[in-house]
Structure to design on (679 residues):
């Protein structure tokens, strides 16, 4: 048995954990002993200080040393058993619901001195402790600073504590994975020492080297995995793509604008990758409306003209349709473009499958369904993934593999995130960034209005509609229920229809494909001026003529989601407006968030401010996104450690240091799984 085997073993191997407790732990996603180590106390309860009865504070957990004076056991059932106790300053009653007299007599023998700790209450002029769990004649066994864990029902604190102390007692001494220089930066704290300190109520508050070491371990394991994946991708030699620059030029000539400096730079970087014999694995990052689509289509046409097929994957059907229309408009007629989504009917799907295999389709645009096993390309040369920040390292690598050795990968993201997070989430990729916005853009002017002033909003909208402008009216998800969600948008639609007659359209997720498309088409063709919708318009859709967006119940959305929604307007050269509507009372935090949106139009700035407000944990729903999350590391607070880890990985790569030194680190931190799966 290896020294680390204990850490990787199933929790049911821990003494005292039966199948029932195992199930409870697994529900909390704690599967191995190693997982358990990271289920840290939420906080600590200090039961070490003894108080006198006359100085007790009501509502607090406190500890007293008292004499047991008298049992007050009721003759009537269902009333609690009470025990009167005293010290030299006063009287207190211990109140027990659902405890047998025998048990009470045992833990609180008459006339004995006991130490009791519990939450103090005050009832009918008397101090009380209800159902105290910490009672002993041995003072020291109660007077402790005890950790509190977030418990699942069925797991009590005592059990938890006993399991964790068993694990801590049996922690193995692991072979050090860091070299001396690195270890010295953390004052030579070993992994085991660090873990023990992490669980120690006295040192945890102090933080320090032990915590930094553990955070660094975590970041390094993630970066090393990324580095390995990069290497394995670069190792594959592909056929260089050959294409002429006049294809790009003639496409650019069809545009009624000129590309920005950063768009051109990104195209250059991408072209360099396409023409090299190393596989491209590149992230194209740029705020909403920065013009990523055109860069991706230029990339697509270059790959097609060098004799390969291209797959473009988008998150929604509507977006697929819009990219499809744009590609048809910009590409020469001989380029064959098809669209495939989960709603594509059997006959069409079969056709597409056949034509793909016969190389009769050049560009296939679609949703997730593009990557079902049945869909086989004849000569896939490029995969483009649009607006998919919910794609993990594993899925990306899978895609790249599915494409085969000649397939390049371009991922586009509008998620404005700090560099530490890019390093983490996209650390396996090269990056191109579009910072400059098209220069015809004006900042969107943002207002906020309470719901009660909806008449003013209507007036504002009316004015714009009369001038021929178009308006998005967004109704949010209420109570997470799709059904109610649709109803609220239907209600609003009917309300607006009374005012604006046939100038209003309604779009929500429950409509069928044809209806949806018809409505979007009508909006694009300006047959309707107001589009009431749920958040289906959130991602990517491009309506340059829309200049007003009204967002109801705006406090239901996160800042970045509001920024994305607002990005649906202000895409043309018109002055655009965003009206955030709220229920009448707003929390301080909500007010701050509105002000951030009013003040800034730059997604990066907004995410920075958002982080200051919320901490990174919640940023962009990062935690919920299913992407890798850290147990300890915080991309904002621990920026220095992220930088240090980046340096370290570069050194390891450069010196060709034996990465095997870090095998244990990768194995423990669950990165090895990914590697075994992928490489
Ligand atoms: P995103 O980066 O959010 O995907 P899009 O690619 O959808 O943005 O572009 C938003 C809008 O900006 C589109 O209408 C597009 O035609 C337009 N656009 C793109 N690049 C430029 C540019 N350089 N100058 C002016 N308009 C541009
Ligand atoms: Mg886009």
């Amino acid at each position: 048995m290896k020294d680390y085997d204990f850490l990787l073993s199933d929790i049911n191997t821990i003494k005292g954990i039966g199948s029932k407790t195992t199930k409870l732990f697994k529900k909390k996603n704690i599967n191995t002993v190693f997982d358990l180590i990271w289920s840290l106390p939420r906080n600590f309860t200090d039961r070490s200080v003894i108080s006198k009865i006359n100085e007790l504070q009501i509502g607090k957990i406190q500890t007293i040393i008292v004499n047991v004076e008298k049992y007050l056991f009721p003759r009537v059932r269902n009333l609690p058993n009470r025990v009167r106790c005293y010290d030299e300053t006063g009287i207190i009653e211990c109140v027990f619901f659902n405890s047998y007299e025998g048990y009470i007599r045992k833990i609180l023998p008459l006339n004995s001195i006991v130490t009791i700790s519990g939450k103090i209450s005050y009832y009918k002029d008397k101090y009380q402790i209800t159902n105290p769990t910490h009672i002993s004649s041995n003072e020291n066994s109660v007077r402790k600073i005890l950790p509190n864990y977030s418990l699942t029902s069925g797991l009590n604190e005592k059990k938890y504590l006993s399991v964790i102390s068993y694990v801590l007692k049996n922690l193995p001494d692991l072979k050090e994975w860091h070299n001396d220089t690195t270890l010295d930066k953390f004052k030579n704290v070993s992994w085991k020492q660090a873990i023990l300190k992490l669980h120690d109520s006295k040192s945890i508050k102090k933080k320090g080297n032990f915590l930094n070491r553990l955070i660094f371990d975590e970041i390094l394991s993630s970066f090393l995995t990324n580095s390995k994946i990069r290497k394995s991708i670069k190792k594959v030699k592909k056929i260089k793509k050959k294409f002429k620059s006049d294809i790009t030029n003639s496409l650019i000539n069809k545009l009624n604008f000129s590309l920005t400096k950063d768009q051109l730079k990104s195209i250059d970087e991408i072209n360099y990758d396409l023409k090299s014999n190393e596989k491209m694995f590149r992230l194209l990052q740029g705020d909403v409306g920065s013009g990523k689509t055109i860069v991706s289509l230029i990339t697509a046409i270059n790959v097609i003209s060098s004799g390969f097929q291209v797959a473009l994957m988008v998150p929604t059907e509507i977006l697929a349709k819009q990219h499809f229309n744009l590609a048809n408009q910009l590409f020469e007629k001989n380029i064959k473009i098809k669209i495939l989504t989960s709603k594509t009917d059997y006959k069409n799907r079969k056709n597409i499958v056949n034509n793909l295999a016969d190389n009769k389709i050049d560009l296939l645009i679609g949703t997730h369904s593009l990557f079902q096993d049945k869909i086989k390309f004849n000569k896939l040369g490029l995969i483009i993934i649009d607006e998919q920040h919910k794609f993990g390292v594993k899925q990306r690598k899978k895609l790249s593999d599915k494409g085969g050795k000649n397939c390049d990968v371009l991922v586009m993201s509008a998620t404005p995130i700090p560099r530490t997070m890019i390093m983490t989430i996209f650390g396996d990729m090269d990056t191109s960034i579009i910072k400059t916005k098209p220069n015809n853009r004006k900042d969107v002017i943002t207002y906020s209005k309470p719901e009660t002033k909806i008449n003013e909003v209507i007036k504002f909208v009316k004015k714009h509609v009369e001038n021929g402008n178009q308006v998005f009216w967004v109704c949010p998800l209420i109570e997470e229920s799709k059904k109610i969600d649709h109803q609220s948008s239907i209600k609003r639609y009917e309300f607006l229809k009374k005012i604006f007659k046939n100038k209003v359209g309604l779009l929500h997720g429950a409509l069928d494909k044809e209806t949806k498309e018809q409505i979007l088409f009508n909006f694009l063709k300006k047959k309707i001026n107001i589009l009431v919708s749920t958040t289906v318009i959130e991602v990517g859709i491009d309506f340059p003529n829309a200049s007003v967006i009204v967002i109801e119940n705006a406090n239901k959305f996160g800042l970045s989601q509001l920024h994305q929604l607002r990005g649906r307007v202000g895409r043309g050269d018109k002055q655009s407006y965003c009206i955030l509507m709220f229920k009448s009372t707003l929390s301080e935090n909500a007010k701050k968030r509105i002000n951030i949106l009013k003040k800034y139009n730059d997604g990066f700035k907004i995410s920075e401010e958002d982080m200051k407000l919320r901490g990174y944990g919640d940023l962009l729903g990062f935690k919920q996104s299913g992407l890798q999350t850290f147990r300890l590391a915080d991309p904002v607070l621990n920026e220095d450690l992220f930088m240090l880890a980046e340096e370290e990985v570069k050194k390891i790569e450069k010196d060709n240091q034996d990465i095997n030194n870090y095998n244990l680190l990768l194995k423990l931190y669950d990165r090895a799984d990914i590697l075994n799966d992928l490489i």
Summary: Residues 292-293, 386-387, 540 surround magnesium ion (ligand 2) (CB under 6 Å).
